[in-house]
Amino acid sequence: MKIAIIGAGITGLVAGWRLAQKGVQVSLFEKEKAPGGLAHGFKEKAWNWYLDDFFHHLFISDISAQKLIRELGLSKQLFFDRPKTAIFKNGQISQFDSPLTLLKSPLLSWPQKIRASLVTGYLKLTNRWQDLEKITALNWLPKFYGEKTFKTLWEPLLRSKFDINANQISMAWFWARIKKRSVQLGYLQGGFQVLADKLTEQIKKNKGQVIFNREIKNLKDLAGYDKIIITVPAEKFFKTGLPEMLGAINLILILKEKFLTDGTYWLSVNEKDFPFVAVVEQTNFVDRKNYGGNYVAYVGGYYPQDHRYFKMTKDQIFKEFLPYLKRINPNFNFASRITCYVSRNLFAQPVMPVNYSRLIAGHKTALPGVYLANMQQVYPWDRGLNYAIELGEKIVKIVVNDQ
Q: Is residue 139, in this structure, part of any structural domain at all?
C-alpha cells in the first residue's frame, strides 16, 4: 500500500513513522525546507539549541508526548521545571500560577479570591465538558466567577485572543485550558525541532520518504497513491463547513538584557488596548547560555487572517509593539536589542463556538481514500504538541483499519 501524507508537522511525522513501521510505503510532502510545522525551530551560529518559531512547553498531563519522547530515546533531554507565570493588569505584574499566588493577588478581594479558587477547582476536577460546550465562555465565566473577577482575569484574555469571535467561544474550550494546565512545565533540550528531526530520521530508517520544498496544491498530484492523509488545513483543498481559524504572529526579541526582570516566564497581558496577548521570556525558563548568552523574549498574539500585521516587516511590527512593551518595563533599554525575528502562521488557532463537537469534520472525508487529521479535530482540547501526537496515532489506526 502506498500512502501520501500532506504536511510534515508533528501529526504528519507521527503518522508517517507509525505507517512506515508497519511496512507501508509512505511519503510525506512538506512545503517548507524542514520538518516541524508549528513546532519548527531555527538556530543561529552561536547557539547550542534551536529556538522554536512559536513558544512551546509541555504540561505534566501531556502523557502522550512524554511516551513518544521516551520511545524515540530522547528521555534524557526532557526536563520539567516550575517557571513563573504572571499577568499584567493595571500597570503591574502579578504572579498567577497556583492557588497560593491567587490568594496573594492584589487584584481581587478576599471573597473574590475564595470564589475564584472554588470555581477553578471545579473546572480542574470535572470531566463534563459536554455540558459546558452548550454555553459560551462569556456567559458562564461572569456567572460563576463573578463580574469583577471575570473582567479582571478572563475577559481581557478572551477578547485579546479571539477579538470579534470572543462572543462565540464555547466554555468547553476554556475548561480544557484549565483542566490540563500544570504548575510544572516541560521542555526538550535542544528545542522541539529535535523531536521533529528525530521523527524524520525514523521515517527514513523505516524506508519512508520525507520530501521538502514540495507544496501539494491539488490532490490530483497524488493520483499514484492508494490513500492520502491531509494534516494541513483542509480549506486548502475543499470546504469543510468549520468555523474560521485565526493566524498567529510572534515577534522574537534577541536581547542583551533581561526584559521581565522579576523572572516571569509567561506574562499574560490583561489590558484591553494592547496589540499582543502574551510576552514569553524563554530565558526565564531555559538557560540563556543555550542561545549564545543572549536573552530571548517572544511577543505574540492571534489575529484574523487578513490582519495588516501579516503584511508588515518585523521592524514595523516591533515599532508598533514598542510603546506597549515600554508600559510593561519602562526602564528597559531597547537600544540593547540585538535583533528580532518574526514568525507568522495563518492557521494557528481554531475558533471553537458552542456545540463545536457537532461541527467537527470526520477523519474520513467524502473523497474516497482521503483522510483528514489537523488541529481543528483535537476538540475539546486546544492545539498543542501532545494532541498533535495523539492525532497522528489516531489517524493511522483509522486508515489501516479502513479496508
A: yes
